[in-house]
Fold:
Amino acid sequence: GDSVTQMEGPVTLSEEAFLTINCTYTATGYPSLFWYVQYPGEGLQLLLKATKADDKGSNKGFEATYRKETTSFHLEKGSVQVSDSAVYFCALSERSGGYQKVTFGIGTKLQVIP
Amino acid sequence: DTAVSQTPKYLVTQMGNDKSIKCEQNLGHDTMYWYKQDSKKFLKIMFSYNNKELIINETVPNRFSPKSPDKAHLNLHINSLELGDSAVYFCASSRSSRAVAGVYEQYFGPGTRLTVT
Structure:
């Protein structure tokens, strides 16, 4: 079945550091890929998405590129801020058994210190 | 307007009690979900309904029973609560999971923190 693997964390960075959170996936077809962010005490919200190979999703300074050859969708940001402290979830959706099925990674906690 | 709302936000109760969590979405979506998030932030899908039809029923104790009176509502009833049920429960919605094409992103509610003592 489908699976999403991401680094467990926590990841601790100083403000303005470069961020990479790795995400790799296993899927039978051509999934859509997502990054969701969960701020403390809140629900998950979509951060960015990509629907086909070589697509780059971007939002709020975060970027991720759909790499089919390496089955990866790594999240990057050039300069993190304290306000980026949150849990980040990589996810994919793929059609299976007549409906779209979503698979989430375990989540990576990011802590940015001033 | 809140897109996906849940009530209550906090729920503290004793073992053996029965409780319900309500969820409503005003996005016009056809599919709704319940997730359980443990203390390590691991997110586990419990149920999914598409237009009031149950389509995902993961390995969840039968003490948990979802009910969808219409496609905008998906409630979760839990019987005989146990200590291990303590977690944050999230409701989510999306466009129809039966759709053949298109992007399939989910919209989450704020969560209900359930504490069983």
About this structure: Chain B touches chain A through 25 residues (CB under 8 Å). Chain B has a mean pLDDT of 91.
